[in-house]
Amino acid sequence: MPTLRAWLSEGPFTLGLSSGFFGFFAHAGVVSVLEAEGLRPARIVGSSAGALVGGLWGAGVPAARLREELLALRRAHFWDPWPGLGLLRGRLFRARLEAMLPVRTFEEAPVPIALSAFDVLGRRTAVLDAGPLAAAIHASCAAPVLFQPVRLGGRLYADGGVLDRPGLAGAAGDPRVLYHHLTSRSPWRRRGSPALRIPERPGLRAVALAGIPRCGPFRLERGAEAFERAAAGMRTALDERA
Fold it and tell me: What sign has the CA pseudo-torsion 207, 147, 67, 56?
């Protein structure tokens, strides 16, 4: 069996980034290593925390800036309580996304992106891959209870991890997938839930890193440690047999 680095170098691959509450620090650590190694995906798919990092990186935000922006994040940057179906209105979060994104739409992104979101009325996973990118990332990240659902194209959407925790719905037909699985459990997810299992299928190589500190809106100071541990774990994973 080749190492993961060799396997990724063999041909185009899709990068899949799972949901997992505030696990975007760990995802950012992983993509920083891929960028440094010159291992760029042909497509990016993801859900919630994975949609945030995958959407920004795929849109052309360099890993170094992604790290800088995330580690500078403070609760005041997205904390806008407002009456509704969730604590936070989400306007501050959307504005921050729009300020960071170098492109406005999926179609302008240098890497194709597909993000999972939960269609509230249809009670199904929807794959968002066209139109306004900031709105789609916002929709995929709209964690139940914390954020209010997002209206997009006449539909209401919430966190993509509700039904598609792996964030792989957009990669259903992709033959080669590198998947980063966040091991953290969202507050509403019961222990032992099938959604927490690492998916298996032909052509999928999963990386699940242990020892990543759990982050949240009241634990943002742990983001730097989560980033560094994930980056170190990914460097090690590249040299392991795939």
Answer: positive
For residues 127 and 188, give the distance between their C-alpha atoms in angstroms, rounded to a whole number.
22
* Alpha-carbon gap, residue 155 to 144, rounded angstroms: 16
Quote the pTM value.
0.95
Q: Sign of torsion, CA 204 1 238 25?
A: positive
Q: Are 207 and 180 in contact (CB under 8 A)?
A: yes
Signed CA dihedral, 238, 113, 187, 220: sign only:
positive
Q: How far apart are CA 145 and CA 164, in angstroms?
A: 18
C-alpha–C-alpha distance, residues 28 and 206, integer Å:
16
Task: Name residue, tokens 């709105």.
Answer: 135
Instruction: List residues bridging with 47 in a β-sheet.
Output: 116
Mean pLDDT per block of 10 residues along the chain (242 residues) reads 95 97 96 98 98 98 98 96 96 97 98 98 98 98 95 96 96 96 76 84 96 93 97 98 84
Tokens representing 242 are 């795939």
Query: Which secondary structure element, helix H or strand E, spans residue 71, and what is its range?
Result: helix 63-71
